Amino acid sequence: MAEQNRYRKEVIMIHIFKVSGQRFVPALTMEEAFWIHLENPSPEEIERIVKKYNLEEDFITDLQDADENARLEWDEGALLTILRVPIYYKHRSAKISFATAPMGIISTEDKLITVSFYDNEILTQYLEGKHRPFNITQQSFLLNINLRTAIYFLKFLKEINRRTTLIEDELHQSMKNKELIRLLRMEKSLVYFNTALKSNEIILERLQRTRWLLNDPDAEDMIEDVIIENKQAIEMANIYSSILSGMMDAFASIISNNLNVVMKFLTSITIIISVPTLIVSIYGMNVPLPFQESNFAFALIMGISVLISLILVLVFIHKKYF
Which ranges does the record mark as transmembrane (predicted)? Predict the structure, then answer.
């Protein structure tokens, strides 16, 4: 996951929001805030939040690890939910365009704290105040984040499929290593997505059984919708992965078959050329040979060589070597 470490967020900021009606609006102080979002927090900011809300420091620092697994953890009244979220790298130097990274959601008695060390679009609508109005509680907001995570997985999976189709068309035109490597990277992204979606599914099933979630009457119906969306994303990832894997195998077979055809053609040409070479080599020896006294020796020898070569060409055409 070195690629993800390379493109971590560079902006260091704490966003605080309160609830106004059914929307988030900026808050003036942390005391009045309902939602606190940490973007790539500095050690000082982490220490400040940990002390203020009596949290385990690992709740935040663990999220710096790009390979941190999705999990659910309780500690002294605080619930930590770690999700694997999809990441889209727009940088041309990125080895892969699509990957996953951890995002943490910490629920305390009266605050919801989200933490992200990696650039993602899951919370963009909420941060910009462009989200759809909904009855905002800690439970409903957590489920909304899960729902948007599943939606973005579906969105990126469709983009991966579109790019795969374009690469396939290019491969039909010319078999190049460049296109095959791009397909391999798409397959790698699908593996990341599939693993992340399955780990998120486990978290959702555990959440469904927690008393904390059942404190919100609307949460039970909503989590069913989130699980369905996540399962749809898992199914789509499996389908695209199977298609891509089959495509890679098919192109590998085509390349191998093309190599066999080329080798067969070159072998046939070598055999055809070797006959005149053999005859000329024999007549280059300093011993008595047929036609050596004839004025038409050269024409006869060349004629015989060409005739034998033509016979071999016809035989190979009949055998479909050409």
Answer: 265-284, 296-317
Residue 76: what pLDDT?
78
Domain ranges of the chain: 1-128, 256-318
CA–CA separation, 10 vs 39, rounded Å? 9
Centroid of chain to Cα 70: 18
pLDDT, tens only, 18-56: 998 888 999 998 899 999 999 988 899 999 999 999 898
- Where do runs of H (alpha helix) occur along 80-218? 124-127, 138-173, 177-208, 211-214
Of the CA atoms within 13 Å of residue 60, those in its CB half-sphere come to: 25
| Buried-state track 50-60, b at ≥16 Cβ within 10 A, e below 16 | beebebeeebb
What gap in Å lies between CA 27 and CA 48, rounded to an integer?
18
Q: Tell me the whole-structure pTM to 2 decimals.
A: 0.79
* CATH code for the structural domain at 1-128: 3.30.460.20
Burial class (CB in 10 A: 0-12, 13-18, 19+), 232: middle
User: Is 1-128's fold the same as 256-318's?
Assistant: no
**Residues of the chain above pLDDT 90, percent:** 40
At 43, give phi and psi (nearest 5°): -55, -35
Q: Is the pLDDT of residue 97 over 50?
A: yes
The domain made up of 256-318 is a member of CATH 1.20.58: yes
Alpha-carbon gap, residue 224 to 276, rounded angstroms: 79
How remote is the C-alpha of 257 from its chain's centroid? 29
